[in-house]
Structure prediction request, 226 residues.
Amino acid sequence: MTVKICASVTAGTLREAKRMIKKAEKDRADLVEIRMDYAQENYSPDEVRKLSDLPMIATNRALREGGLFEGPEEARISQLFSAANSDFDFIDIELSAEGSEEIVKKIMDAGAETIISYHLFDSSINLHMLNSIFRRELKSNADVCKIVMSAKEFEDNLTCLRFVERTSKKANVVCLCMGELGMTSRLLSPLFGGYLTYAAVERGREAAQGQLTVAEMRRFYDVLGV
Prediction:
């Protein structure tokens, strides 16, 4: 069994990104996610890509999806294309983005793999809803289907894990619960077949509520021997 931990790098500057990536490497992250929407200075994807040999995911999350990007949608997508052309391994694009299927195709043409993502913040969670979203994501032909939701009760973790266990046989799937109640899904999802799980580089720099750190997750998996 292979468990992959992706460290979310929420850096405002290139210097800070370098520090956070080095810490993620030290703590044995398998991938790093560069949250482009956290940038407070202009630095190019090329500069970031040179900071590590680890596989990199470019994410530029809009406000409507829980991110920080406030600019025009065209500029947001353009930055993701730049990352694809700068040898980023994965580009995360939301299912809700206008023309998402065409965007996925263009990203693939640029040589990067794609993560099609969907975020549920306030809706109640059930398998019917998750399966419906999953079917829509499959139509995009993305390499990874990702669904992230807010846990309202502990049982939401069990719904998430059942979904992952079933759908991971059909595609590369990431499904996690946000919030303090969702930590169980973050830890156990890879053990049920999830493609990867996300972690913070350090406390206070989480990209989503309920993220554990890379070091914490790695210790947990070491105890389990995975």
Summary: Residues 14-26 form the longest helix (13 residues).
